[in-house]
Design brief:
By secondary structure, the protein is of the alpha+beta class. The strands form two sheets. A five-stranded antiparallel β-sheet has the order 1-2-9-4-7, with no helix packed on it. Strands 6-5-8-3-10 form a five-stranded antiparallel β-sheet. It is built from four helices and ten strands. It is found in: Secreted, Extracellular space, Apoplast.
Amino acid sequence: MYLPILFVISLLFSYSHGSVLDFCVADFSLPDGPAGYSCKKPAKVTVNDFVYSGLGIAGNTSSLIKAAVTSAFVDQFPGLNGLGLSMARLDLAVDGVVPIHTHRGASEIIFVVEGTICAGFISSSANTVYFKTLHKGDVMIFPQGLLHFQFNIGNIPALAIVSLNSPNPGVDFTDVALFANNLPSAVVEKVTFLDVAQVKKLKAVFGGTG
């Protein structure tokens, strides 16, 4: 009979703890931990901790993927610490692509500001692909942890803003994980069913060795 009471008390404690602080601006002088950064002392907090101007600047798309991601995560925007959200800007030149990737710690929603973007995700249960051509004003959700992608299929540069429900969502690019490492090419061949020549070519592109 005590378990329900203890459960309710724990909930009340968590709610009361959350209401003690109005915010918890990240203190970058201390290490990051599983629960995020420690709080900066209130006397050292300024309005600039709650403002970030980086998303107003176009990213450099003169790269291999012809795209740029400008993050407004907690490491760039300390006021997000503990608030459960973040944002990013996607600039995609013509034929630009944000390769298949995941966010372990967050779901993502994309809003197309300009251009035409094909976006989609792959379910983990049945490997079903959900993808659609998005136009200016469209939004799409990518559930937490699922592989997803975006690429520009229009004839003008595309711009999108994404929001994620974590101040530090993390990002894992599949291609980078496979080919930017020092795993021997023969091993990569075995686990990907690609031939060695293809593996070495991709390792050269992504900066891997082995």
